[in-house]
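Why do we care about 3D structure at all? Because function follows from shape, and shape follows, mostly, from sequence. That is the central idea of this module. The next example makes it concrete: a single protein chain, its amino acid sequence, and then its structure expressed as tokens.
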Amino acid sequence: MLRHYVSVDGRARRTVVLALCVVVGSLLDAFLTLVHLAHGGTEANPWLAHALTHSTARFLQLKMGLTGAGVWILAAYHQCPLAARGLYGLALVYGAVLVYHLLLYVRLV
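And the structure:
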């Protein structure tokens, strides 16, 4: 009897790294957004802007909750090509958002 074992080393490691990149990117985005807001900026996402009218804690809960749920779903289905591409895409998007925040910060200083 021949048994097949699924290898999880390479793919699972890549998924964990991508998921961490997205979550850390989201945390940095939230922090830099709060810095930007302190200098008179505005939040572009209408849901997060509405959450900010209530409190900073609600803003952070919504932002990290949505990001965490999305990353969890994509990581759970990482063997599906669309989910894997979604994780790569989110990591790329957060990289671009962080570059944008850096440019905003340079303009503020």
